[in-house]
Specification:
5 strands, globular, alpha/beta, 5-stranded parallel β-sheet, single chain, Rossmann fold
């Protein structure tokens, strides 16, 4: 089994406090106590691009979708809370959208750091769920974070390259479809904050993501 942290690298730590997102996790647990979601669903985990996709199930009729995104989260937060947001649900596929906030947290966070964080999350999941497909949705080009696009592009490239070496994986590249002819993010795909997507943005994601969703059991 590959190491969870690459040799010579410091252990993964979040820039958030240990109490960050505690309420979000408690809300998930409370909802589960009322009605546990069905097993064998396609599980979405990650940050606000998933959190705000509240009607995601309507975009993918015929699939059972479970959304456990929590806004503002980083890859270390997913690692910290994985026991609560992944394994209780016995998913048939895991989709991850995370990484944007890692870079936005500090200019000192580099591509190597974020890619290593993703690898740690990947191996954690793979050890526990060896036969479950893991898909990564590329970091999107948010207009409000335009200065970070070079980091997103390189981070996406390295994660794609890593996943290509692993079985039962896919890299879902939503990035190019969200750029205009001038190579800049298409503003009309986003809400007024130029960070989160509107229905038009999610419609683009729907078309790109659908072919990667696992059918059947």
């Amino acid at each position: 089994m590959p190491p969870l942290v690459e040799e010579g690298k410091a252990p993964v730590l979040s820039f958030h406090s240990g109490k960050a997102f505690y309420k979000d996790i408690q809300d998930f647990k409370a909802a589960d106590s009322v009605k546990m979601p069905p097993a064998n669903a396609i599980l979405l985990i990650g940050s606000s691009s998933f959190t705000y996709w509240r009607d995601v199930s309507a975009y993918f009729p015929g699939y059972t979708i479970l959304n456990r995104g929590f806004g503002g989260s980083t890859l270390p937060d997913l690692i910290r809370y994985q026991d609560f947001i992944i394994y209780p649900y016995k998913p048939k596929q895991v989709l991850i959208y995370c990484g944007e906030n890692d870079f936005a947290s500090s200019d000192s966070v580099d591509v190597t750091t974020v890619v290593n964080r993703f690898k740690q999350l990947f191996w954690d999941i793979r050890v526990r769920l060896p036969k479950v497909p893991i898909s990564y949705v590329a970091m999107k080009p948010s207009p409000s974070r335009y200065r970070l696009l070079p980091k997103y592009i390189e981070g996406n490239r390295q994660i794609r390259t890593f996943l290509a070496t692993q079985k039962l994986t896919s890299f879902i590249d939503v990035f190019p479809a969200m750029l205009g002819p001038d190579g800049r993010p298409i503003g009309k795909l986003f809400t007024a904050d130029s960070l989160h997507m509107n229905a038009e943005g999610y419609a683009i994601w729907q078309k790109i993501i659908r072919p990667y969703l696992k059918k059947g059991n």
